[in-house]
């Protein structure tokens, strides 16, 4: 039931003792880096001021901007000869960021991923196919090493070429697949075109989905389409990659490995902690990273701690499904809206496909939202289309409090690239 029973079944007090011990070592190591020495000095604190876990709030936050400002090796806390790999983010929004790993960091990361995969029931004997891009994107190598560590037969299919992906699934008897949720839908559509029924013609039983926000409704759709159990997987390059938090077989929140991280949820504006159960920004402190420990890293991801115990016996707290990143939030006519709220409504309509695109414009200085969504099947029954559009609009208005223009478009009209799905196009021009 547990891959690392010693760590997975720790009681709360044991988790906290271990965290304190590891935090102490981490802080000591951080003082090898000019970056953290200056941070502590400027904040007027020393490592000795951090005596309890509550003292963590005295430590200044680390942000993505810090990673950019210290690109590429500025936050390294070990001699560069000990660094054996780097991963870099895409850098589409400015200077890229780099995360460095020692051999031990890579081992710990692989252990975390293996623990997650074991938790959802995967074992040696399973065939694990990874449709993530390999290379700098951490979903490739991250899952590769974790799956190998578990002793599964791995199929490093990588991203793209969906027909080839499907051929691998059928030829190699793939039982478990890692895919971003938007790609899982695409995979099913191509299977349908190829006349392949995933339930009869494949051995797929488990899907690992993550790397982008998705609704519970989308998960259920994926499960139904492919005849699998789909588990939510959360990670980010700054925290190694996949393996940070993962659903167990209860499928109710993602256990975040608290022997690896100190977890805080803070109000994104005041940066004060919010009570358990309330949504805020996830802030993580790494506890067993050598090359590049991150203290109080602001992930910009919004979520909450799920209150209560999980029946699986793990006391590592559970994160709720991500609501999105703070930068995903759209502000329209003074209302805060997340794309996931719109997805939740759309996915409840069986007539609709999996792809949608939200476009924001401000003609006449008036913010307007258009929601284009693909129909599952072609129809020229205009009366039906009209009433469907009306009903979708009504439900969206109830959810987001403004009235979007809804456009039903034929299947295949909203093309997605290979990477994470693009759900929002903001074409608004600032007027000042
Ligand atoms: P990039 O920053 O270029 O997208 P990453 O692969 O590091 O590269 O992306 C990590 C981010 O992806 C997280 O901070 C989070 O916003 C998102 N993410 C990862 N897993 C999930 C998940 N299961 N649900 C929702 N969002 C996720
Ligand atoms: Zn659990």
List the main descriptive attributes of the protein structure presented here.
binds zinc ion; Rossmann fold; binds adenosine-5'-diphosphate; 9-stranded mixed sheet; 21 strands; 2 domains; alpha/beta; about 425 residues; GMP Synthetase, Chain A, domain 3; 12 helices
Give the radius of gyration. 22 Å
Strand order of the largest sheet: 4-3-5-6-7-8-9-14-13
Reported for the largest beta sheet, the result is: 9 strands, mixed
Helix percent band? 25-40%
Please give the count of helices. 12
Secondary structure category:
alpha/beta
Label the CATH architecture of the largest domain: 3-Layer(aba) Sandwich
- Average the pLDDT over all residues and give the rounded result: 95
Please identify which CATH superfamily of the largest domain we are dealing with. Answer: ANL, N-terminal domain
Strand percentage lies at 15-25%
- CATH fold field value of the largest domain: Rossmann fold
Annotation, overall tally of beta strands? 21
| Poorly predicted sequence stretches spanning 5 or more consecutive residues | none
Q: What is the terminal separation in angstroms? A: 59 Å
Global geometry: globular
- CATH uppermost class of the largest domain: Alpha Beta
Question: Can you offer a commentary on this structure?
Answer:
This protein starts with a helix and ends in a 6-residue tail after the last strand. The protein contains twelve helices and 21 strands. It has two domains: 1-326, Rossmann fold (3-Layer(aba) Sandwich); 330-430, GMP Synthetase, Chain A, domain 3 (2-Layer Sandwich). It is globular, with a radius of gyration of 22 Å. It is α/β, with parallel strands linked by helices and 432 residues long. It has helices at 5-8, 12-30, 34-43, 64-69, 103-119, 138-149, 162-172, 181-193, 198-201, 216-226, 339-346, 382-400; strands at residues 83-88, 98-102, 127-130, 153-155, 176-179, 206-210, 229-234, 245-247, 254-256, 261-266, 280-286, 297-303, 305-306, 318-319, 324-325, 330-332, 335-337, 352-361, 368-375, 405-409, 424-426. α5 packs across α6, α7 (162-172) packs across α8 (181-193) and α8 packs parallel to α10. 31% of the residues lie in helices and 22% in strands. The longest helix is centred in the first third of the chain and has 19 residues, at 12-30. A nine-stranded mixed β-sheet has the order 4-3-5-6-7-8-9-14-13, with helices on both faces. The chain has a four-stranded antiparallel β-sheet with strand order 10-11-12-15. A four-stranded mixed β-sheet has the order 20-19-18-21. The model has no long low-confidence stretch (mean pLDDT 95). The structure holds adenosine-5'-diphosphate and zinc ion. Adenosine-5'-diphosphate (ADP) is lined by residues 89-90, 138, 210-213, 232-237, 299, 301, 322, 325.
